Amino acid sequence: MRREIPLLITAIAGVVFVVQYFIPHSPFNHLDGWFSDWFSIVQACAIVLGSLNLLMISSQKIARKKEGWGYAVVIIVSFFLITIIGFAGGEEFRDVGTGFDWLYNYTYVPLSSTMYAILAFFVASASYRAFRARNAEATLLLLAAFFVMLGRVPIGDLLTMWMPEGFRMSNLATWIMDFPQTAGQRAIMIGIALGLVSTSLRVILGIERSHLGGE
Amino acid sequence: MKMKRGEVIVLLVLAVGSVLAYLGKINGWHSGFMFPKWLSITIVSLTFLSMVWMLVRTIQGKLVERRIVFLYVGIAVALPLLMELPQKIIVSDIVRAVYTELEALQPGSKVLVSFDYDPASAPELQPMAEAFIAECFERDLTVIMMGLWPQGPQQAAMAVDSAMKRMGYTDQDKVYGVDYVNLGYQAGNEFVIQRMGSSFQSMFKTDFLGTPYEDIPLVKNVKNFSNINFSFNLSSGFPGTVEWVQVAVDRYGLRMGAGNTAVQAPTIYPYVRSKQVLGLLGGMNGGAEFETVTGLPGKAIGFMLPQSFAHLIVIGFIIIGNVAFFREGRKSRLKG
Amino acid sequence: MEHFGLWVGAFLTLGIYSFLYRDNAWYKLCEAIFIGISAGYWVVILFWDNFYGKFWIGREEEPMLWVGAALGVLMLCRLVPRIGWISRWPLAFIVGATAGLWMMNYFSSNIMAQVQSTIMPLLGEGYSASFGEIVGNFVIAVGTFAGLIYFYFSKEHKGAFGATARLGIWVIMITFGASFGYTVMSRMSLLIGRIDFLLGDWLGLIQ
Question: Least crowded by CB within 10 Å, which of A33, B80, B290, C166?
């Protein structure tokens, strides 16, 4: 029971979507509709599960007075601050001028953007320390990066304006992106898709069971 | 992690400077600064010379500290925002293709724009969104907006506001519900697109403001993708362009262009080649090219100067590192 | 509130950047706020949009939504170790549905359509392309094939097969190089966005 029912659920859900692809009509389109709604509802419960886990870990850290427990308090306070304001706001919780909107604009937005933006510094530092033309492959990688980085900004063409039109930086970058880059991306894309299709088939047929926490 | 005296002083100076600058802003003591051309050229030259000095130091085996590298990146991005130097933006075919698609549409055609990104990617995608919507308004195309990311509709609302301001339109010139509509966010990733293939209304019972679907003049006769003339997807990951291609384009025959973050853009090129995506704006540069081809300059064009300098700095550091590497007979003694 | 908001935004932005100097309490505080705020943000969004918007509003009109709610409740069983195994049911549903959907979508769009677009005519009646385009199509066909050969590890890479795989790795390296270039572009753009916030929106220094 513990294993058979989940396997059956996986198989039915998978087969419905495969059949729906070929027969997008009743009753399969209804099943498709229901399944996508269920998917969304389960997703909402999954985030509750994740958040409870975060709160539990943070509470344990505080209770045991582990190093940095003060930051765990901040995590819990920030979590409850936005959730209480969000729930109290009702259906219009994110309208302009609400507390949730304020927290979104002045805390969530700057923090999430800056977390990504800080990588710019580390990319530059890594380029200086580790990006070396050690062999033919690394040299190709480096050259492609060089042409693309210069060719995708106006200054690239400014530096190569003395060259014939087709050989200016922007043209070289475009050629790299349109042809060899596309070829490589396509090889990766097809490779991933082949792997994904075969894994999906194994999951639906019950051969791949690792998602159920087994072999 | 105790602070040193010097660090406290630097922090205090920065805090006081910030308060003064802020007070200056709100009291109108200044309206911002722009470096004169000679100063801009001097700064660029000094930066270049200091890079040469750094090259010499690295060749001597003295690795520049990583915080110096960080400082250079900061300078390369911050100072050009205060400079005004001429730059020529060349429009590539892949960007022009999006423009050509819009050009071919009749006034009144319906354009579906999906905002599948969050504020973290807004510096790259928001200028594209604003320019695209402004161009649609300019051509009298009607715009239906939605999002597969919860933050998408808020970005859409901001993009419309900005496009209206840029074009000088009022609420009477472009009427909500008639010329454009924001259907809001729907959870369910590619399942949403799949269900829109049979019925938009099954997914969007109301718009972002809560108006019932059937009461919105612009969409009340829009049943599915067959009523959409062109679609544009702004995406920074999953769900995004890949899912739109797989479901809306390949299964329902939607004509689609895309605007992606630069990280994602290279992965979309194969779809452009296979005509699954008809045109692509990749990163800030794609946005700047689109602003250029539409003749509606916005933030992306302005940001291309710091972008150029930032690229030059990174390239400079790569060159310095490699020159040192080769001088040492491929046995780099550089240590982190 | 807008003035206060700008200062809060700037405080948090600079706090994250302070990590560039060294690990410090300001950064850790901002990091903790980020973790709490993002987790809470997603709980609120998914509650209102997914649970309330999909289930609560539509439950009377569409009784089948109760099945979704039941699956959701089963997911929460994970919190009780004794009956934690029941949470495999909704998980099995999510994995099965995703597998079914992705299998067909990826097969059609990422394999069939891509292969079709790779094998283009070089010359021929009813087909016209510039010389550059023909060369490009050839580069794509050869590059894609060689790249795929490189990813085939069930056969030893030697002889003609090995040479093709070597060509494949070169193509892949160019791809990675181009992707690196675009990644630099992307990260710098985001940084420009933040600096624009600090110098423009916050301090008003940009004209």
Answer: C166
Task: Give the gap in angstroms from C-alpha C92 to the nearest C-alpha of chain A.
Answer: 5
Span B34-55, average pLDDT: 91
Q: Per mean pLDDT, which range of A149-163, C49-63, C182-196 is the poorest? A: C49-63
Specify if A169 maps to a domain: yes
In a domain, A84, yes or no: no
CA closest to A114 among chain B residues: B120
Partner B contacted by A108 (CB < 8 A): yes
Chain A environment of C168 (Cβ under 8 Å): 187
Domain hosting B29: range is 25-86+302-327
**pLDDT on residue A215:** 45
Question: What is the count of structural domains for chain A?
Answer: 2
B261 touches chain C (CB under 8 A): yes
How many CB pairs (< 8 A) connect A and B? 146
How much of chain C exceeds pLDDT 70, in percent?
98
- Alpha carbon distance A21, A35 (integer Å): 14
Number of domains in chain B: 2
Which pLDDT belongs to residue C131?
83
Q: Do B311 and C205 touch (CB under 8 A)?
A: no
Residues 23-52 of A with CB under 8 A from B: 24, 29, 32-33, 35-37, 39-40, 43-44
pLDDT of residue C65: 92
Domain with A197 in it: 133-203
Per-residue pLDDT tens over the stretch C75-121: 888 888 888 888 899 999 999 999 999 999 999 999 999 999 998 87
Interface test with B, best of A40, A119, A125 (most B CBs within 10 A): A125
CB within 8 Å: B285 and A39: no
pTM, entire model? 0.92
Contacts of B291 (CB under 8 A, 6+ apart): B127, B131, B297, B298, B300, B301
- Contact state of B88 with A134 under an 8 Å Cβ cutoff: no
Of A23, A47, A66, the one marking the end of a domain is A66
The answer to the question of residue A89 being in a domain is no
Structure confidence at residue C125 as a pLDDT band (50, 70, 90): low
One domain, residues B30 and B118: no
**Hey, is the C-beta of A124 within 8 angstroms of any chain B C-beta?**
yes
Domain membership of residue B58 (yes or no) is: yes
- My answer on whether B73 and B177 are in the same domain is no
Q: Do the Cβ atoms of C113 and B276 come within 8 Å? A: yes
The reported pLDDT for the residue numbered B336 is: 44
Residues B289 and B322 in one domain: no
Task: Check A18 against C104: CB less than 8 A apart.
Answer: yes
Token digits for C204?
Answer: 């008003």
Using one digit for the tens of pLDDT, what is the confidence trace for B298-307? 999 999 999 9
Please list the ranges in chain A whose pLDDT falls under 70: 214-215
